[in-house]
Amino acid sequence: MSRVIVSILSAASKEMWNFMELTARNRQEYAMKHQYQLFLRRYIDIFHFPEERITNMIDALKQTDYLLSMGVDTLFTNFNIRIDSLIIQNPTADIILSNDVNGLNNDIMILRNSRVTNLFLRSIVGTLDEYDQDQEAMATLIPMMPGLKVAEIPQKQMNAMPYWLYHYKNDNGGTWQKGDFIFHAPGISFENRMKVMKDVLKQVVKGVPNKLIEKDTTRVDKPYKEDMAMVTIKDEGGQISVEPVKKEGK
Question: How far is CA 165 from CA 154, 161, 184, 214, 249, in A?
Answer without folding.
Answer: 20, 9, 12, 40, 61
